[in-house]
Amino acid sequence: MAIKKKFNPIRTPMPEQPADVRNKNFKEVALGYSREQAIEEANRCIQCKVPLCQKGCPVEIDIKSFVGHLAAGDVPSAYRVLKETNALPAVCGRVCPQETQCEGSCILGKKHEPVAIGRLERFVADTFDSDSACEMITGHTACSLPNDQVKVACIGSGPSSLTVAGYLAARGVPVTIYEALHEIGGVLVYGIPEFRLPKAVVAREVGALWAKGVTFMPNWVGGKTITIQDLIDDGFDAVFIGVGAGLPWFLNIPGENLVGVYSSNEYLTRINLGRAYDFPNYDTPAPRPRNVAVIGGGNVAMDAARTALRLGAENVYITYRRTQDEMPARLEELHHAIEEGVQLELLTSPIAINGDENSHVKSMTLQVMELGEPDASGRRRPVAVKGKTKELEVDMVILAVGTGANPVLLEATPGLNLSKSGYIDANPETGETSIPNVFAGGDIVGGSATVISAMGAGRKAAKTIAERLKVEL
Amino acid sequence: MSNKILQKKALIPGQTSLLVIDAPQIAKKAKPGNFVILRIHDKGERVPLTIADTDPEAGTITIVYLVVGKSSALLETLKEGEIILDVCGPLGKPTHIEKCGTVICVGGGTGIAAMHHIAKGHHKAGNHVVAIVGARSKDLLLFCDELGGFCPELLIATDDGSSGHKGFVTDVLRDRLEKDKDVTEVVAIGPVPMMEAVAKVTKPFGVRTVVSLNSIMVDGVGMCGACRCNVGGETRFACVDGPEFDGHKVDFNELRMRLAQYKNQENESMDLFRREHGN
Ligand SMILES: Cc1cc2nc3c(=O)[nH]c(=O)nc-3n(C[C@H](O)[C@H](O)[C@H](O)COP(=O)(O)OP(=O)(O)OC[C@H]3O[C@@H](n4cnc5c(N)ncnc54)[C@H](O)[C@@H]3O)c2cc1C
Ligand SMILES: Cc1cc2nc3c(=O)[nH]c(=O)nc-3n(C[C@H](O)[C@H](O)[C@H](O)COP(=O)(O)OP(=O)(O)OC[C@H]3O[C@@H](n4cnc5c(N)ncnc54)[C@H](O)[C@@H]3O)c2cc1C
Ligand code: SF4
Ligand code: FES
């Protein structure tokens, strides 16, 4: 395998807002490659005979091919390849944990830096006008002729449902998406902040689905406004459940209901869905604390911490019970957070939140930890150092300690089998649940994971549905 | 669902209005105790309001609100024929209603409207419903005609004595409980101090007491925990586990403090609104 002469071992850097500017605004941090930068980076790809990156991608994008087209300057062809398997490339290019997926498998990564696949995906998706997506995918000027003999409903409008809708709409199936909140996009709109995934990017992908004839029904709560039985009675041939894992966990430590203690879901929903960063122009209020502790080490913790910085907090701490190496967050997010001034309080675990006489948070007591033997996940288990605690003076605490299955729809759906941990039991091959022609995928099946895995699950279910409805291309 | 305001009635001019809204799917599904979440404009917050009545045939729901801040003031600016941007529901667990004998329904202020729907439910289930309503004065009483229409007993208390007993609903309630040992349940909806006082009164009688908690909500479907309350030492989400809970187990102090957490921002918002609307 001959490496090209001019080969650059270092990936083309991503233009970014400087850390001391961006930590005061909500504009996107990473600005995106220029055409020249994208083509330059695409040319670092050595077009392996047996590309490993594709296996690393949960939806198996033909990465070699799309990067190849881009290297030759052909954005439309690159886009067509992306869209063949990925309904939301502009989103995935921004939020996938590429270091453990495609880029983690890239052969260049063995000795050098891997090809910046995510950045290239983003460039192609942003550059290509997604309105023409239909034509590109199907070869028709409009999508497959609408087929009024069949119809499919999705509950929830996160990436799993959007994928189902995109896949089926391209095959002419009318799809209706019922969403509990007033905006479409799931975690992409209420969870992931603007500075990482601009709302306009999600709106563009949603708009493309709308143009393909997908119907959106915001403010409809599955299990409350409408049940799955109602949908079946209304003549829907199949129902896809993509309601995510939105029930926030708390820690059951003293002081958790004090004023100033938030779940990350509440904090981020106020800011992102309610646009509370622009209060009082928008009506939803958000707290403006000075010293903030965020508990957790994942993407959600990073997002909450970086949001608090942008809203003017003087000190933002992330407390995590293991070390930096074990943090599950996307590497780029962790780096960005540290650059922006987030302080890490590693090997600590909260044991109490303490309030003042008005029941407002004034500090948090942390148990100091050390790493012990590896646990089932292979990570070294944090164990308490006996008698060693410390106090952190904070006026706000955000819990980003995970989420579980929200029972609202599940309780209203008799016959739907659940796993021990309360998620939906679905056939891993087809996505079908214990109720015939009712499918499920995304975080409500496996617990919270990634955008791309939710899309992978949506794709699998959509394929099964398309086969059953005999509309598979 | 058009979310169109089909009828608007000022119950207490400038303070409390009733809206009949076109929302057939919600009307079909709603039961006493359920609430909806509204958004009034595209920069608006999500506002929870109890469903005070439904007409499934006509496809309408009724809400009654008290103007307390910017969002309710904005709602008050809407006229008949106008559309409410977002209406989501029915949310929350419905009231547990079964045939059980005598039920006392206590309502205070705007809470009388919400209580009315529950009282109606108990009446339809065949229970003997005693309604006790209270307000500062006679002109602030709501739904007395409606309640009088189906409740065999309607007892009134006003702070100034302009109607019924002069004093609090709790006085009337204690009196009623002392006279009749067969009351199976008391339901109380109204301001937090009223519900707390009702729970205190019923405790020695050992009567099951249900209160409806109006904690601050964001999504209203169990995804944020903003509405969490302490009930019997356990954290519960008012929007999905409630809003009704055992009044003898609720930590009312915590509820009060959590309800006041945005006071400063709420005032800022309201001041801005007043300036923009020139009053
Ligand atoms: C703050 C945050 C940051 C993240 N960052 C990343 C990242 O960088 N990269 C990555 O890959 N992943 C990230 N994730 C995880 C990723 O967003 C999720 O795994 C993914 O969105 C799951 O998709 P989904 O389709 O299962 O549902 P979701 O995106 O969870 O959407 C579910 C939708 O269903 C709606 N819903 C719920 N109940 C009902 C009901 N009863 N009726 C109707 N609608 C209902 C919800 O309102 C919601 O809109 C992050 C998650 C969070 C919270
Ligand atoms: C389940 C439930 C049912 C309710 N039913 C009714 C009803 O039928 N009629 C009625 O008049 N009111 C009802 N409320 C209260 C109503 O939601 C608030 O009065 C309203 O949100 C106030 O908004 P505002 O902007 O006008 O006032 P603000 O100035 O924002 O707030 C005034 C006070 O209202 C409370 N409040 C503020 N925001 C919220 C929120 N998002 N959720 C809940 N409470 C809040 C706070 O205690 C605050 O101090 C109900 C609340 C809940 C939770
Ligand atoms: S979708 Fe995600 S994993 Fe697949 S190529 Fe794009 S960035 Fe990599
Ligand atoms: S309002 Fe969000 S969980 Fe109840």
Let me know the average pLDDT of chain B.
93
Strand residue percentage of chain B? 25-35%
Q: Let me know the largest β-sheet of chain B.
A: 7 strands, mixed
Largest interface, with Cβ-Cβ < 8 Å?
A-B, 40 and 40 residues
Strand content of chain A: 15-25%
Assembly annotation:
heterodimer
Low-confidence stretches of chain B: none
Bound molecules: flavin-adenine dinucleotide, iron/sulfur cluster, FE2/S2 (inorganic) cluster
- End-to-end Cα distance of chain A, whole Å, is 37 Å
Specify the helix fraction band of chain A. 25-40%
Q: What does this molecule look like?
A:
The complex is a heterodimer of chains A (473) and B (279). By secondary structure, chain A is an alpha/beta fold. The two termini of chain A are 37 Å apart. About 2% of the residues of chain A have low confidence. In chain A, helix 6 packs antiparallel against helix 8. The longest helix of chain A is centred in the C-terminal third of the chain and has 18 residues. Chain A contains 19 helices and 15 strands. The chains are: A alpha/beta (473), B alpha/beta (279). At the A-B interface, strand 5 and helix 14 of A face helix 1, strand 7, strand 14, helix 8 and helix 9 of B. Bound molecules: flavin-adenine dinucleotide (2 copies), iron/sulfur cluster (SF4) and FE2/S2 (inorganic) cluster. The site of one flavin-adenine dinucleotide has 41 residues of chain A, from helix 10, strand 2, helix 15, helix 17 and helix 18.
Write the layout of secondary structure elements.
The complex is a heterodimer of chains A (473) and B (279).
Chain A: H1 19-22, H2 35-42, H3 53-56, H4 63-71, H5 75-85, H6 89-95, H7 102-105, H8 117-127, H9 133-138, E1 152-155, H10 159-169, E2 175-179, H11 187-190, H12 199-211, E3 215-218, H13 228-233, E4 238-241, E5 247-248, E6 261-263, H14 264-273, E7 291-295, H15 299-310, E8 315-320, H16 331-340, E9 343-346, E10 348-355, E11 361-374, E12 380-393, E13 396-399, E14 403-404, H17 407-411, E15 438-440, H18 443-446, H19 451-468
Parallel strand pairs in A: 1-2, 1-4, 2-3, 4-15, 6-13, 7-8, 7-13, 8-9
Antiparallel strand pairs in A: 5-14, 10-11, 11-12
Helix pairs in contact in A: 2-4, 2-8, 4-5, 4-8, 5-8, 6-8, 10-19, 14-15, 15-16
Chain B: E1 5-12, E2 16-22, H1 24-29, E3 35-39, E4 47-50, E5 53-55, E6 60-66, H2 70-77, E7 86-91, E8 102-108, H3 111-124, E9 128-135, H4 144-150, E10 153-158, E11 165-166, H5 169-179, E12 183-189, H6 192-202, E13 208-212, E14 228-231, E15 234-237, H7 238-241, E16 244-246, H8 252-259, H9 263-276
Parallel strand pairs in B: 8-9, 8-12, 9-10, 10-11, 12-13
Antiparallel strand pairs in B: 1-2, 2-6, 3-4, 3-7, 5-6, 13-16, 14-15
The structure holds flavin-adenine dinucleotide (2 copies), iron/sulfur cluster (SF4) and FE2/S2 (inorganic) cluster.
